[in-house]
């Protein structure tokens, strides 16, 4: 049963990454969440088709996470992050290292993906500097990349709208690889496209242009999530790795979305068999319950920075946050990793992957669909835009999805899905069939 919600005063809250004026006309107010569902102020039950913002793979309100947070609050609600730490922070770092590819032996904690990206860029610069390579200051990002909203992140990011308003604030010395999406070559690929590995050679061109000795790092999302699940072509990431190694350039994977099981493996690095020098993570590490991010770092990068630190009483790396390794998110993260183990969640995601793939690709042939993409428990459909009105078609699909009881994520005219790992096969199929019907609705309405 649905009902008309009580009006609320929306005048003060400036919503992030939201068309605020449209929102005020079409508010979406969530009241509660349990398992794989949200409940909104109309009394509707909505399947969480994007796991929050890719951050809640275990679903919502798992009492085991709540209990861990409550217990930690009673034991120690805060511990200064500088010059001291709680024991659980050390053990969490060790657990994350155990899950990560071999060689990534250190963890620097932050509070968000954006902070983790900027932290990784600073570690790259610091490392080269202590190695005597202070000229290595350039960063290479990629078109259509999303690396959060810090100054470093928007500089290496490749989304025009995130960059043009802030051009004066950008980091200098940043170049971009081309993105890998080419609909004429790869539309409707299942999993990794077979075309496009050669696009990695663009990195050689950029290196030749600037000289390797000026380049600190390449940062990439293994799968570009925010701009619509752009899956790397077969062999592309391997080539990027080879070129970085050849030229002494650090490779950073931004796994804020792809980390912790989303690609049916612990990390995208495992899924693609490519080990970067650093991995940026956030989101799923606490199931989105409480903010936390971090950077996994190659052990010898840490050792170099320690070695360059001078006398032992002096700080080696001038960076950190008041809430780095905060005991409460640390407790949440331990509980999340316990649940990953006890409930075998990466394997549950893996078992759902073919169900999502089949359901999504069954939409092929629908009017208005330009592409369908998928990998792991993530997927996207790209819609033909309404001429002259970018994003409008997708907005209509979102509204129609909500009418049909499912939540999806829109970005321009792409719709992304990433269901919780606790979903049943029927829920995944129902999500995609509702999406297909919503696309039909949106195509009819103009
Ligand atoms: C790949 C990637 N990097 C960084 C971020 C930024 O994370 P946060 O919003 O926690 O700052 C995101 C957020 O979606 C992301 O997808």
TrEMBL record:
PANTHER family: AMINOTRANSFERASE (PTHR43094), AMINOTRANSFERASE CLASS-III (PTHR43094:SF1). Transmembrane segments: none annotated. GO terms for molecular function: beta-alanine:pyruvate transaminase activity; pyridoxal phosphate binding. This is Aspartate aminotransferase family protein. InterPro entries: Aminotrans_3, Aminotrans_3_PPA_site, PyrdxlP-dep_Trfase, PyrdxlP-dep_Trfase_major, PyrdxlP-dep_Trfase_small. It is an enzyme of class 2 (transferase). The lineage of its organism: Bacteria, Pseudomonadati, Pseudomonadota, Betaproteobacteria, Burkholderiales. Keywords: Aminotransferase, Pyridoxal phosphate, Transferase. Its cofactor is pyridoxal 5'-phosphate. It holds the Pfam family Aminotran_3. Belongs to the class-III pyridoxal-phosphate-dependent aminotransferase family. Its EC number is 2.6.1.18.
């Amino acid at each position: 049963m649905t009902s008309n919600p009580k009006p609320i005063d929306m005048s003060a809250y400036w919503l992030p990454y939201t068309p605020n004026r449209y929102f005020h006309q079409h508010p979406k107010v969530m009241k509660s969440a349990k398992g794989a569902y949200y409940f909104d102020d109309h009394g509707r039950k909505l399947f969480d088709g994007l796991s929050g913002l890719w951050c809640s793979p275990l679903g919502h309100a798992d009492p085991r996470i709540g209990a861990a947070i409550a217990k930690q609050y009673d034991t120690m609600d805060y511990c200064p992050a500088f010059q001291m730490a709680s024991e659980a922070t050390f053990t969490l770092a060790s657990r994350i290292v155990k899950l990560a590819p071999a060689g990534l032996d250190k963890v620097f904690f932050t509070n968000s993906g954006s902070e983790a990206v900027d932290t990784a860029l600073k570690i790259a610069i610091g490392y080269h500097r202590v190695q005597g390579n202070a000229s290595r200051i350039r960063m290479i990002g990629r078109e259509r990349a999303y690396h959060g909203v810090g100054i470093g992140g928007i500089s290496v990011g490749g989304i025009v709208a995130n960059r043009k308003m802030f051009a004066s604030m950008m980091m200098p010395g940043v170049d971009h690889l081309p993105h890998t999406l080419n609909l004429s070559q790869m539309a409707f690929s299942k999993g990794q496209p077979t075309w496009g590995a050669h696009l990695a050679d663009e990195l050689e061109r950029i290196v030749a242009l600037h000289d390797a000795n000026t380049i600190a790092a390449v940062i990439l999302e293994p799968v570009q999530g925010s701009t619509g699940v752009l899956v790397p072509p077969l062999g592309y990431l391997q080539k990027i790795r080879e070129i970085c190694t050849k030229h002494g350039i650090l490779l950073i994977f931004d796994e804020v979305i792809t980390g912790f099981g989303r690609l049916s493996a612990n990390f995208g690095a495992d899924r693609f068999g490519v080990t970067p020098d650093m991995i940026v993570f956030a989101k799923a590490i606490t199931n989105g319950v409480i903010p936390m991010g971090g950077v996994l770092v190659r052990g010898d990068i840490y050792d170099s920075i320690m070695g360059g630190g001078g006398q032992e009483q002096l700080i080696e790396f001038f960076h950190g946050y008041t809430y780095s390794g905060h005991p409460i998110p640390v407790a949440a993260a331990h509980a999340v990793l316990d649940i990953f183990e006890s409930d075998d969640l990466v394997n549950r995601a893996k078992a759902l992957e073919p169900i999502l793939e089949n359901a999504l690709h069954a939409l092929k042939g629908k009017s208005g669909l330009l592409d369908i993409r998928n990998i792991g428990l993530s997927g996207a459909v790209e819609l033909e835009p309404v001429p002259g009105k970018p994003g409008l078609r997708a907005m209509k699909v979102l509204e129609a999805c909500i009418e049909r009881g499912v939540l999806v994520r829109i970005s321009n005219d792409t719709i992304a899905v990433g269901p919780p790992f606790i979903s049943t096969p029927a829920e995944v199929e129902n999500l995609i069939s509702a999406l297909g019907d919503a696309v039909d609705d949106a195509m009819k309405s103009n």
